[in-house]
Amino acid sequence: ECKTLLIGEEARPAVQERLRATARNHAGVCHVNDAITVHLGPHDVIAMMNLDFEDDLPLSQVERIIEEIEDTVKAEFDEIRWLYVRPQSSEAARARREQLQREIVEEWAD
User: What is the pTM of this model?
Assistant: First the structure.
């Protein structure tokens, strides 16, 4: 177990799904594009989420929603010590994934 933690094991699938659900359940969040978790130690997890917010929300509202998500995560997830939330449209997330897939295919083709 220690070896995998050293190289950044993901949090358990149940934790990842609860994290996604926490974000999805907030009004103003349209889609969870990505939710990435990495163990930094046995009980220390860093989590990063790219979220698509409703387009017509003012920035102050997006900031408030992110703060609410952070507060919920702090209260419900003892193991998540750091949480980073990045607003990102679903279209941008899809384009980035497609670009990464093309790069991987090109690397393996060489």
Answer: 0.81
